[in-house]
Amino acid sequence: MRAGLFGGLFIALCCASLLVGVQQMAWSQVFSLSGDAWLTLTASRLPRLAALILTGVGLSVCGVILQHIVRNKFVEPATSGGLDAAKLGILVALTTVPTTGNLGRMLFALAFCFVASLIFVAIVRRIRFKNTVLVPVIGLMYGGVLSAIAEFYAYRNNILQSMQGWLLGDFSKIVQGNYEIIYLILPIVVVTYLYAHRFTVLGMGEGMATSLGLNYPATVALGLMLVAVTVAATVITVGAIPFVGLVIPNLVAMYYGDNLGRTLPVVALGGASLLLACDILGRLLIHPFEVPIGLTAGGVGGVLFLMLIFWRNR
Predict the structure, then answer these.
(1) Residue 102 has what pLDDT?
(2) pLDDT at position 1
(3) pLDDT value at position 287?
(4) pLDDT score of 273
């Protein structure tokens, strides 16, 4: 029953996302298959819906992968330096190879995110915190350092103002022809599902995973590479969106447990639903203008993040 309600909510959010916007649309206009409404739907609303769903799915899935690798429920790309490293990689690509396209910039972002994630995992394993809240605190500090480096780099190269604009999560510029790189998330989700059992074992710790015959270093490297590809594809397409990969896996784990083979579809659907809700909220708050989803997702996700911390430590 709960799964049915969840699926119904997701479908309702998808329908609302297609109809809400500067240009008001009705289903009669959509089904007419002609005119400005049909052009708006096919060139803008449907690509935006696809990008929203794929981004929500990708961020929530890579969040749950990181949480199993680090064995901490408060970790995701926004609280481990991954997003900030990806932004730094894009800035380096813009200044060193200015003629490169989105694919080249994504490769820079991927490399920086992967290396930053490896360093973060090494730091966590080295220090071995007893208090679970300290892990994301260290991650936020680590991300703050990377963000400061990125902003200083942008300032030195006179692109700070433009960086603050296009790296803020925003789906308003998604149109047919400039978002397709985000479809890389689909094979990422498939691979994650195929390796769901291994990532579940990974969450038991290195000693237990090794005793069960798992190649621990290789599985960690695979997980971090999946995360890096997802973060790079989303940042280069829509900008940085925080907290989706933190909130959804925690809420799903509270009700369904930590077996990824069973919970991964729910995590993916939950991430897409949360991002759709935040996007619709941003389009309605100051209609006909739009609040970037980086702000709405950051506000909603930040509040839920604080609630999760209080709930875990009560």
Answers:
(1) 80
(2) 44
(3) 77
(4) 92
Crossing angle of helices 293-312 and 244-256, rounded to 10°: 40
Residue 192, exposed/middle/buried by CB under 10 A (0-12, 13-18, 19+)?
A: buried
Q: How far apart are CA 16 and CA 304, in angstroms?
A: 23
Task: Show Cβ contacts of residue 282 under 8 Å, excluding neighbours closer than 6 positions.
Answer: 290, 291, 292, 293, 295, 296
Cβ–Cβ < 8 Å for 118, 263: no
**Residues of the chain falling short of pLDDT 50:** 1
| Residues 6 or more apart in contact with residue 59 via CB below 8 angstroms | 76, 77, 230, 234, 241, 244, 245, 271, 275
Confidence at residue 4, expressed as pLDDT on a 0 to 100 scale: 66
Which residues are paired to 215 by β-bridges? none
The 3-state secondary structure of the chain reads CHHHHHHHHHHHHHHHHHHCCCCCCCHHHHCCCCHHHHHHHHHHHHHHHHHHHHHHHHHHHHHHHHHHHHCCCCCCHHHCCHHHHHHHHHHHHHHHCCCCCHHHHHHHHHHHHHHHHHHHHHHHHHHCCCCCCHHHHHHHHHHHHHHHHHHHHHHHCCCHHHHHHHCECCCCCCCCCCCHHHHHHHHHHHHHHHCHHHHHHHCCCHHHHHHCCCCHHHHHHHHHHHHHHHHHHHHHHHCECCCHHHHHHHHHHHHHCCCHHHHHHHHHHHHHHHHHHHHHHHHHHCCCCCCCHHHHHHHHHHHHHHHHHHHHCC
Contact 205, 229 (CB under 8 A): no
Burial class (CB within 10 angstroms; exposed 0-12, middle 13-18, buried 19+) of 196? buried
CATH topology of domain 52-312: ABC transporter involved in vitamin B12 uptake, BtuC (1.10.3470)
pTM of the model: 0.86
pLDDT at residue 312, rounded to an integer: 64
**Chain length of the chain:** 314
